[in-house]
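Q: Here's a chain of 135 amino acids. Please give me its 3D structure as tokens.
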Amino acid sequence: MPLALLGPMVFATAADYSAINSDGRPTYEGYALKADGSGALTLCTAKLDLPSATLYGAVSSSKAEVVPTGSPQVHKVKLAGTVKAGDILEHNTSGKWIKNNGSTDRVLSKMALEDGVADELIDAINIGLVVIDVT
């Protein structure tokens, strides 16, 4: 297995994700990111955006440490709803993660490893990309 898949990697970002919460964690930790037209990472804002990575931490205003979508590493995801361990997750239009809703266009790419509720960071693992377009 290539060493790059074992841990977070640094990529250029299209926006500044370096803000820190009052608890000392990056504001956008656990959000879904996609590559834009220039190859820089930006938030997933559409249901069928293909997530390239999950934000792990900000390095500067133009770079972020991310966990690539193909990485087998357990990592944190930021929730937008209630999930249970074992639930398959999709990103919503703000880049946060929700339980597979089973009815609309979506990209499934994670499995929750613990229970959680909206705005919590929980452990998850990548499962690959499953695109479901119901239109």
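Q: Can you summarize the key feature?
A: Residues 3-68 form one domain.
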